[in-house]
Structure formats: structure tokens, C-alpha cells
Write a structure and sequence with these properties.
This protein has about 475 residues and is an all-alpha fold. The protein has 21 helices and two strands. The protein has a two-stranded parallel sheet. Helix 16 packs parallel to helix 18 and helix 18 packs antiparallel against helix 19. The longest helix has about 30 residues.
């Protein structure tokens, strides 16, 4: 879509009423979940979210005071998710923010919202940001109190009608989390400031530092602890290591003792994130997107191994069954794709008689590169095969690929010494594909050797033809 068309789309979306924007956003998210027109849906959804959040790329010079919703919800940014995958403790759906913002201005905290808007207008007019932080914090506290009050159940009080006016069940589910994080903004910011930018490994010394930073009563509540843990996980190079904090607080690796502490939620979070990463891997494989598969497999391998070795999990426990299910999902996602690779290689490299080459399928360079990516995918799987329950199929497939590609490459090079010109041209393309596969399976040196052998075979045949 051209830039002009994109601008027209944004203008149209910006003119829609907020309720229509929210409805359209939900419909496109459902379309993506169903796999319908994913490219178009993703593009329109991106533009719609930019309109709602007021972050259009062509308006970067606009003062931040022009976006009161962004100022209000800024403390939530580290915890917002946009995926259709079910959320876990310590996460908030980004799509919940717009209905909550509309409710605050309409019913929840209308006077405080009006005062905040007026304060922002005065700050903009003054040309200075003095007073912006104080006005924002005042409204955040007012919003938090309104949200917590409406979301906290009271015995004998029917809140269902009020909550239904705020938004659908997903939004209502996020209400308490939104209010709790807004109320605890200072504690969260202090925790973030006391953590390193990145924690390469959660070693005993790093654990003591994290525990000290977490030693704040407001962060120890069941509502806020998952968000504090999520903030820590974002600093970890290996997020699964958050379970070490739970083990440390329980002074045991026994899952029953770990689960009995408030920090047992860290294990639940780690398992959820591994499930989410497994779903992402499955989607990427289904769409033949292998660019990030290596990183995904490493993260899954390290996470699964870490939970299995550092926690004493029982096979029949909830955590044990969930980890077993994750390993099975990974294995099922990978196995069918791994087993399909030799067949695709044979389709390209299969030897054909000269008379059959005219009817043979053409060799597409794009398809060759796609198959090369699949061979590399099998090689990566081999590195992590044991922990991901794909050891047998991966080793067997990789061995079959090596044997078949090596034999086929040598046969194709020999075949270049004879045959008519048309057949030789086709076999040259086959040999080129085979050499590309050899580079992945046997390394650059072997591929270079076979490339020179193919060139010599063609050159020798040409000299023989000229001599005769």
C-alpha cells in the first residue's frame, strides 16, 4: 500500500467513534486468529493501534502532553501483550486500555479526567512540561482508586451491570491488574531502577540482589508479585531462570514446597511462557518461516532442561503434566516437518533418464533455497533433539540426508560428462542444488570440492565434443 493510501486509511480510522475502533480492532484480531487475510488484517490492525495510541509515525514531533491516555497508562507498558494467546498472571491485554480509558472519562473518574485534560491544556499552552508529572500521577491515583473500587467484589452487591458497561469479559478480567499497577507505580519504578539492564545468569549473588530489590511490602501482594516477577524476567537473558527465585525462597527444589510459597507463581509463569514460545514455533513452521527457529529451539531447549533439572517435578502433578505437554507439542510440531525434508530433496536431485528430463518439473532457485533452509532446520533440531523428544527422528533424517545427498551429488557430477545438451543443462541445475545442500550438510570445503568437480566434468565434456 502506498504512503498516500496509508495516510487515507489512518484518516478514516481516526474519524471512527471510539466504540467502532474497539469493535474493528477485536474483529481483525479474531480474523488473524482464524488465519483469514492475515497480511491485510495485520496491516490494518497496526494502523488502527497507532491511531488509538496516538503514535502515528508521521507525527513524532507532537508533544507527549497531547496523549492523555498514553500518559495515564505508561506504567503498564512493560506488561502489555498484543497476542491472541491466553494471557498469564503479570500480563495485561493492550486492547483493554481503550475501553477502560473511555469508561474513566465517561463514568469511572469523569471529574478527575476532565481536570487532567484541563491541566494538560494549560501545560501545552505554557510551552513547558512543568507540572506534567504531578498532574499525571494525580490522575493515575484517581483512576486506580476508581478501577479498584468497581472491580473489587462486595458481598451482596451486583456489579455485573456496571462491569458490563466497561467492556467485554476480557477487559473486566484486566481491571484489577490495571488498577493495581497504576497504584503501585513508584514501587515498580524503584524495582526497575535497582535491577541491572540485563542479567546474563541468575547466579546466587544476583539472586540476593533481586531478593533485596523485591523486599517491598507493596510488591509482595498476590496481585502485584506476578508483575514484579515479569519485570525481572524482562531483564533475564534466560527468562526461565526466574524459577531459581522461587526455589531460593522455598529453600528447596521440591515442587510441593515451592508451590506452597507465594513465589510458586514464578514456575507457573515460566511454564506459560514456554507454552507461548511453543505456539509461536508451531505457527512459524506452519508458515515456513525458519529465520527465528534456531533461537526459538534454543530457548525451548534451555527452558525445558532447566525446569526438569532444577525442579523436582512429579510426572502426575499439574506442573509435571504441563511440562510433559509442552515437550509433546514441540515434538509433534517438529517431527512432521523433519520427516518431510528427505522427500523434497529427492524430488530435486532424483536421477532421470535423458528422455524423461523434458517432462521433469523445473528446478526453481527459490525452492532450492527453501529446501536448503529446511536442511539447516534439521541440523539445528539435531543440536537440541534429546531434550525436545525428537532425538530418533532427527538423527535418522539427518543421516539419510547426508547419505542421499552425497551419493546423488557424485552421481550427478558423473552424469555431466555425457548426455545431450538439454539433459546436461538440467543436470547442471541439479548439481548446483546438490552442492548447495552439501554446503549445509558437509561444510564449505566439501561443497567447493564438488563444485570444482562439476566444472571439470562440464569443461571436459566440451573439450571432448570440440575434438570430435
Amino acid at each position: 500500500m502506498s504512503q498516500t493510501s496509508t495516510e487515507r486509511l489512518r484518516e478514516y480510522l481516526a474519524q471512527l467513534p471510539p466504540q467502532s475502533q474497539a469493535l474493528l480492532m477485536r474483529e481483525f484480531e479474531r480474523a488473524i486468529e482464524r488465519g483469514e487475510d492475515v497480511a491485510v488484517a495485520n496491516f490494518v490492525l497496526e494502523q488502527l493501534r497507532q491511531v488509538v495510541r496516538g503514535t502515528e509515525e508521521d507525527d513524532e514531533t507532537r508533544p507527549r502532553t497531547d496523549d492523555p491516555a498514553r500518559l495515564l497508562f505508561r506504567p503498564l507498558e512493560p506488561f502489555l501483550v498484543e497476542s491472541n494467546f491466553p494471557i498469564r498472571a503479570g500480563q495485561i491485554r493492550r486492547t483493554s486500555l481503550l475501553p477502560v480509558w473511555q469508561w474513566l472519562g465517561r463514568d469511572g473518574a469523569s471529574q478527575a479526567a476532565a481536570a487532567f485534560e484541563a491541566a494538560l491544556a494549560a501545560i501545552r499552552q505554557s510551552g513547558s512540561t512543568a507540572g506534567l508529572e504531578a498532574a499525571t500521577r494525580k490522575f493515575q491515583l484517581a483512576a486506580a482508586e476508581a478501577i479498584v473500587q468497581v472491580a473489587t467484589p462486595v458481598q451482596g452487591d451486583d456489579r455485573q451491570r456496571v462491569l458490563s458497561r466497561i467492556g467485554p469479559p476480557n477487559v473486566v478480567e484486566d481491571l484489577l491488574s490495571i488498577g493495581a499497577v497504576l497504584r503501585a507505580r513508584e514501587a515498580m519504578e524503584t524495582l526497575g531502577s535497582r535491577l541491572p539492564g540485563q542479567i546474563r545468569a541468575l547466579t546466587p549473588s544476583q539472586l540476593e540482589m533481586v531478593i533485596s530489590a523485591l523486599n517491598v511490602p507493596s510488591l509482595q501482594t498476590p496481585q502485584l508479585l506476578p508483575f514484579a516477577l515479569s519485570l525481572i524476567m524482562q531483564r533475564l537473558a534466560s527468562p526461565w531462570q526466574i524459577i531459581r527465585l522461587a526455589i531460593k525462597m522455598a529453600a528447596s527444589d521440591d515442587e510441593i514446597r515451592v508451590a506452597a510459597t507465594p513465589y510458586g507463581i514464578a514456575v507457573t509463569i515460566a511454564l506459560h511462557d514456554l507454552s507461548f514460545l511453543t505456539a509461536c514455533l508451531r505457527t512459524d513452521i506452519r508458515r515456513s518461516h525458519f529465520d527465528n527457529v534456531g533461537d526459538q529451539l534454543k530457548a525451548l531447549h534451555d527452558g525445558v532442561r532447566g525446569l526438569r533439572t532444577e525442579l523436582d517435578l512429579r510426572n502426575d502433578s499439574a506442573w509435571g503434566r504441563q511440562l510433559t505437554s509442552i515437550r509433546a507439542d514441540i515434538s509433534n510440531s517438529l517431527q512432521s516437518e523433519i520427516e518431510s525434508v528427505p522427500g523434497r530433496v529427492r524430488r530435486i536431485l532424483r536421477q532421470r533418464a535423458d528422455k524423461d528430463i523434458a517432462s521433469a518439473p523445473k528446478i526453481d532457485a527459490v525452492e532450492v533455497e527453501e529446501i536448503a533452509g529446511l536442511i539447516d532446520f534439521v541440523a539445528v533440531c539435531r543440536t537440541y533433539a534429546s531434550e525436545l523428544a525428537i532425538n530418533e527422528v532427527t538423527l535418522r533424517t539427518y543421516s539419510d540426508l547426508q547419505h542421499y545427498v552425497e551419493h546423488s551429488t557424485e552421481s550427478l557430477v558423473q552424469a555431466l560428462r555425457g548426455g545431450d545438451a538439454k539433459a546436461r543443462a538440467y543436470r547442471q541445475m541439479q548439481a548446483k542444488a546438490a552442492i548447495r545442500f552439501c554446503e549445509i550438510l558437509f561444510g564449505h570445503d566439501y561443497a567447493s570440492l564438488m563444485s570444482r568437480a562439476a566444472e571439470n566434468a562440464v569443461t571436459g565434456e566440451r573439450k571432448k565434443t570440440r575434438a570430435s
